[in-house]
């Protein structure tokens, strides 16, 4: 892009890890920035989120203050999070193709062999995630694919899938930019009782991946939505049951010992990991069938429309977080 003239302002932002530079008139505002992003990058305002540091934080159209001048933003670090119209259309088309009605493939009879449970082999082929799909427009999709493969091949997950006869056509990753607000971060989505399950694998800035066991617990939560939609007693009992089964049967991480002795369950107040709400999933939208956690900053726990159980769960998470911080500070003080 040519250098800006004396009466223009240059602003550089980062999108999908790459710098993008625009030139604006001196009186341009953040609304003009949104319009340029929509026109030149094909990212509609509904998909745009600007992470502006320092101070301004997350901004998205329609802006609370659309008159913020570009001159105030030029010196700040700006990360644009958002998917193009083509990217969203491509993912929607992939989901439609994957979930279209199709004739089930006949399961071939297993050939008997010594020391092999062929009935288990057949069940694992039937009760599994039949398609794994990372988002191709995000960095390192091959790494996301390996993460999804690890979840699919997790011994505890495989056992739970067989036990509850779960067969999921598509397991895919979630674009963090499409499911992040000041108050919450969507961790998982379940569409139509298990047609598609989306999981937030990446951190908000796409520069890393979240804790494996946290994502696995999110997957347990979304699998429970295959049976129960609302977060009632039936749902939570099944969710906790699946979590216990996955932990018990994950022999790679020590869920079950050689002597078939189970480790202790997680504390009761950790069971829902921060108040998860349910409903129906719509790609690119903010609702439904989804798992949300309270934002990392601050110690308050907003009640909103949450149930009493959800509020208590969020409060428990905040207590755990503070206890962990205090423990780390204590260790740091004793080491000095």
Defining key terms:
Ubiquitin-like (UB roll), alpha/beta, 5-stranded mixed beta sheet, 17% strand, globular, 336 residues
Characterise the protein shown here.
This protein is α/β, with parallel strands linked by helices and 336 residues long. It has 2 domains: 8-81, Roll (Ubiquitin-like (UB roll)); 87-100 and 115-335, no CATH class. It has helices at 30-41, 70-73, 85-99, 118-126, 141-153, 155-164, 212-224, 233-249, 308-335, and strands at residues 8-15, 18-25, 49-53, 57-59, 77-81, 129-133, 168-173, 184-191, 196-199, 290-294. Strand 3 and strand 4 form a beta hairpin. Helix 4 (118-126) crosses helix 6. The longest helix has 28 residues, at 308-335. The radius of gyration is 23 Å and the shape is globular. The N and C termini lie far apart (52 Å).
Set down the secondary structure blueprint.
Layout: E1 8-15, E2 18-25, H1 30-41, E3 49-53, E4 57-59, H2 70-73, E5 77-81, H3 85-99, H4 118-126, E6 129-133, H5 141-153, H6 155-164, E7 168-173, E8 184-191, E9 196-199, H7 212-224, H8 233-249, E10 290-294, H9 308-335
Parallel strand pairs: 1-5, 6-7, 7-9
Antiparallel strand pairs: 1-2, 3-4, 3-5, 8-9, 8-10
How are helices and strands ordered from N to C? EEHEEHEHHEHHEEEHHEH
Give unreliable regions as ranges: 254-288, 290-308
Query: What is the helix tally?
Result: 9
Query: Please, how many domains?
Result: 2
Helix content: 25-40%
Strand order of the largest sheet: 2-1-5-3-4
Count of DSSP E strands?
A: 10
* Portion in beta strands: 15-25%
